[in-house]
């Protein structure tokens, strides 16, 4: 009998040590209610433990540290109660086409947040400046939404940021001058398919970006500041803009494996040093380049379409000079 009593006490003790706290559980139930109790969250039963049986919820030491709600029928706005999950490290609301409204300011209470992914929803309005208060975020993905207005310059004040992924929105204006003075890491820049325009600040030339994608915007002027012989850049996509610079004067990092400069106003002769790159993707079509394509390396392995519609490029894989 005593053994059974001890086992019962042990079981209760173990259960309580793994079950989520009442504060976190109540916050999650309020979030479910604010989202109109969707079937997607049917496992969020107040009679069960949120750490062990609730869809999209992960815990550490009884505190909710990850919340992932994705790919389901859910309508409404991001509830203010999201800010009550104080130990969250990952917040992921993705592929929810009926999630609307703005990013709530209460999100700034999540001081432990490392990953913020609000991808492919119907969120709109400006990307708020207060996102920069999330100093622990390493990965920011706000892509495929309806965000409008300028890129917040305050994003440069997030010291641990490794990637800014705000592509496929309706953002306008130019790249903020503050992006020339990141306070910590130099993040990958994914700004493609927006309505951005203007010149890229020259101050960005001092940075060694791992990946830059500015394609599908209306940028003008010089885009060559992303290149440099001593850099370690891997991927650059400046396609479908109005960049205008002399390609023959550009020095390329040997590390580049993906380079797309198509559909701009880039001019000059074809740089011979491009033969030295181990390119997996390459396109310079629809520009104003001229001269002979140098033989060697991987250049001749690409289709003619990667070189077509230039001023006077010639040589394999195009017609002979």
Automatic annotation (TrEMBL):
It is found in: Cell envelope. The keyword Membrane does not apply. Residues 22-60 form the Leucine-rich repeat-containing N-terminal plant-type domain. Keywords: Leucine-rich repeat, Repeat, Signal. It comes from the Eukaryota. InterPro entries: Leu-rich_rpt (IPR001611), LRR_dom_sf (IPR032675), LRR_N_plant-typ (IPR013210), PGIP (IPR051848). Residues 1-19 form the signal peptide. Belongs to the polygalacturonase-inhibiting protein family. This is Leucine-rich repeat-containing N-terminal plant-type domain-containing protein.
